[in-house]
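Recall the central idea of this unit: under ordinary conditions, the amino acid sequence of a chain determines the structure it adopts. In this exercise we apply that idea directly, starting from the sequence alone.
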Amino acid sequence: MALVKISSILGLLVSGLAMTQRSLVAGSSSSCNFPAIYNFGDSNSDNTGRSAALTQIPPPYGKTNLGSPPKRFSNGHVILDFITEKLGLPYVSAYLDSIGTNFRRGANFATGGSSILPGPFSPFDLGIQVSQFKQFKSRTTELYNQGLSNCSSMSLPHPDDFSKALYTFDIGQNDLTFGFQNMTVDQIVAAIPGILNGFDAAIQQLYGEGARAFWIHNTGPIGCLPFMALPFKFRNGTLDQNGCYAYQNNVVQEFNQQLKERVDQLRNNLSIAAFTYIDVYSAKLLLISDAKNQGFVDPLNYCCGTFVPTFVMCGLPAQVNGTTIHGDACGDPQDRISWDGIHFTDAANSWIASRILTGSMSDPPAPISSACP
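Accordingly, the structure predicted from this sequence is:
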């Protein structure tokens, strides 16, 4: 199977940045009036702030705008936060933070390290996340049927809200990352249909539970992450004109093309539902390829942590040949695209959200406020 070649998207550059990124994203009106959001994904949308070992990530994660303790794999907001702001909803509560948590407006099942198929980075693959949702919905409905009709007083959604909610997805990056670390290119490409079978099965289950509005992010340019690109460069490899590991991005584009085809099939087979496919890949590559003009430094210049010669998470020390290496943060992350070499900064996530929420990078090309059936 031939891989999709990386094409130039500089022609998509958006001019006129007089408004701030936050004002471009924020909003309070929604023609769909989604009562809740249910999110499924990995660390790109996780707001539990838990690593794959389920330990709380340390400061300085989450230090921008979100306070302490940190609950984002960023210095501040993730794209999911901007989605909720755009729809005029509160930030989605993390399902794993269940004690004393308000789930009236939805729940976030994403966890750092999660993948579509069961994988080594997290126990909460997409199938487990869907099972958690089904249990949550069943228990909520059971309580309502027992006569506890005022679910809002218990911080639970009304059972009718499940079919009216928006279901968002940002997952697949870790499936490919595991492949890059353990497989040949041909093996990864051969594995893509099986990975997407898992995604398809999850959507079908949620549809069976009444979900009708699906907002699906494709996978970003993994080869542009400093975590992937810099070790390759360290081994005397050649990066492309954007500072990216090109072969990895070729594989990602093949994955995204097949994902889009699956979404098209789901749209045809589940015709009373609404499926919106969002080209996050192009939005992220657009920012990376035009970083300087958009007010950012070199995309490979991440803010904190290190992984050459060894991995050190932001905020933690490590011993290398008798020397202590610290994952201290940079002074001002607002001009950085990458926070820790793997995840994007608050500023970068805001920039990306301002592009994808308008519908200009979606199929069909409609804003998120119109993503309902």
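The chain has one domain: 10-296+347-370.
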